[in-house]
Amino acid sequence: MEATGRKRRKFLLSLILGLGGLGLLARFFKPRLPQTPARLDVPRQEVPPHGALVYRQARVALVREEEDFYALDLTCTHLGCTVTVTPTEMVCPCHGSRFDRQGTVLQGPAERPLRRLEVRIEGERWVVTG
Ligand code: FES
């Protein structure tokens, strides 16, 4: 009886140590994915409610409407020109595609909407990646 109990304890201990070792190995061999670098980092108070800010060099428009806040990539989905933002819409100067404030195509030749970028809040800042 005593020998069976000892064997059981030894087996359980081996099992626990083995699983712990596997966990460590898995963690060690897990590839570390690089964090997507920030494309834009903006103080939250800079973006007015019901407004938009354009960062032409980064090709990003930050748009804030009611509770909705999003970032659009201003790269035209037709052939890659930088889209110009007007108070009512976004227009591509190259071939005349037009997009609404959400980036939806109003007029071609572009067929796909402007790409939405990932935005996360870090303290008092908006960080745009993608
Ligand atoms: Fe924008 Fe052609 S590149 S419409």
Overall 3D geometry? elongated
Instruction: Write down the CATH class of the largest domain.
Output: Mainly Beta
In whole angstroms, the N-to-C terminal distance is 64 Å
Largest sheet: 6 strands, antiparallel
Number of strands: 10
Helical content band: 10-25%
H and E string: HEEEEEEEEEE
Protein name: Rieske (2Fe-2S) protein
InterPro entries: Rieske_2Fe-2S, Rieske_2Fe-2S_sf, Rieske_Fe-S_prot, Rieske_Fe-S_prot_C
Cofactor: [2Fe-2S] cluster
GO molecular function, one term: 2 iron, 2 sulfur cluster binding
Describe the structure.
The protein has 130 residues and is of the alpha+beta class. It folds into two domains: 1-30; 39-129, Rieske Iron-sulfur Protein. The protein is built from one helix and ten strands. It has one helix spanning 2-29, and strands at 38-43, 51-55, 60-65, 68-73, 84-85, 90-91, 98-99, 105-107, 116-122, 125-129. Strands 1-10-9-4-3-2 form a six-stranded antiparallel sheet, with no helix packed on it. The longest helix is centred in the N-terminal third of the chain and has 28 residues, at 2-29. The protein is elongated. The termini are far apart. The model has no long low-confidence stretch (mean pLDDT 81).
Question: How is the secondary structure organized here?
Answer:
Layout: H1 2-29, E1 38-43, E2 51-55, E3 60-65, E4 68-73, E5 84-85, E6 90-91, E7 98-99, E8 105-107, E9 116-122, E10 125-129
Antiparallel strand pairs: 1-10, 2-3, 3-4, 4-9, 5-6, 6-7, 7-8, 9-10
Bound molecules: FE2/S2 (inorganic) cluster (FES).
